[in-house]
Amino acid sequence: MWCATLRESLGAIRVAWAELIDQPVDETLILIPPVYSDHGINLRCDRRRLIRGG
Q: Distance between CA 54 and CA 36 in Å, rounded?
């Protein structure tokens, strides 16, 4: 049960991140908020990335 919830949460985070950077995001991206950046200009994520913030 928790795997499905985690998968849905990661999917929602990917959608939000794609909207934020205005670029498509690969399904292998794992982003763990909070994430900080300067201005967010020219951000991109290659395949199979893990981004941890905090």
A: 8
Number of domains in the chain: 1
- The tokens 């290659």 sit on which residue? 46
pLDDT tens digits, 12-24: 988 988 888 888 8
8-state DSSP, 2: H
**Rounded Cα–Cα distance for residues 23 and 19 (Å):** 7
Exposure on the CB side of residue 21, measured as CA atoms within 13 A? 19
- Domain span at residue 22 reads 2-52
Q: What's this model's pTM, rounded to 2 decimal places? A: 0.67
